[in-house]
Amino acid sequence: MKHYFSAMSRGVTTDWMLKELDVPHEQIIVDIAAGENKSPEFRKINPMEKLPVLVDGEIVVTEVAAICAYLADKFPEKGLAPEIGSAERGAYYRYLFIAGNTLEPAFSLAASGIEHPQPNSAGWGDMRRVLDTIETMTPDVDWALGEQFTTADIVFGGLLDFSMTFNWIEASPKVAAYVERIRKRPAYRGTHEAFINMSSGAN
Ligand SMILES: N[C@@H](CCC(=O)N[C@@H](CS)C(=O)NCC(=O)O)C(=O)O
């Protein structure tokens, strides 16, 4: 498997997923600042010119949540996804899909100081609804699906962490405590050095 990523991108989340799984893969660093993601070779893999990308033989997977979900299902013995058909699978999908589909665009727009003129047609409504939903979905203790840490935490929790690092959201005490639990995971610490330095004010 080839993982195309950059250390200061959303690729840290898929990098963290790979580290949690501890599976062999080739790490291919793409320099966004140098425009390597816009090269004809890279555009053949992802015409969106975005990172991260996972290439597994003939299979190309883009989008953080899709890559993490793909990896969790490829290595079920690692226990990072509830079994297909289990009751937890519904909640699991909700955490995975809400991150990329709903929270991400809301945060990106808010970070640019823009409010969608029609909350009823925007997929996320407005920031009040987004923050209320995050508050409800954030676990008081342990992890998104209970005692077992899963890919839901990597995708949903990883996005909350990313958003706090870039000041996209002001976290409530409950959300901050959840992100703190995430930041203590050894695999997280092994992949987020640049982010940890940013959060602690170091350069
Ligand atoms: N929806 C995508 C977003 C990926 C994304 O926005 N990646 C940024 C880095 S954080 C990127 O590659 N930007 C380069 C560009 O657009 O030129 C995902 O979930 O993977």
From TrEMBL:
<dbReference type="Pfam" id="PF02798">
    <property type="entry name" value="GST_N"/>
</dbReference>
<dbReference type="InterPro" id="IPR036249">
    <property type="entry name" value="Thioredoxin-like_sf"/>
</dbReference>
<feature type="domain" description="GST N-terminal">
    <location>
        <begin position="1"/>
        <end position="79"/>
    </location>
</feature>
<dbReference type="Pfam" id="PF13410">
    <property type="entry name" value="GST_C_2"/>
</dbReference>
<dbReference type="InterPro" id="IPR036282">
    <property type="entry name" value="Glutathione-S-Trfase_C_sf"/>
</dbReference>
<keyword id="KW-0808">Transferase</keyword>
<protein>
    <submittedName>
        <fullName>Glutathione S-transferase</fullName>
    </submittedName>
</protein>
<dbReference type="InterPro" id="IPR004045">
    <property type="entry name" value="Glutathione_S-Trfase_N"/>
</dbReference>
<dbReference type="InterPro" id="IPR040079">
    <property type="entry name" value="Glutathione_S-Trfase"/>
</dbReference>
<dbReference type="GO" id="GO:0016740">
    <property type="term" value="F:transferase activity"/>
</dbReference>
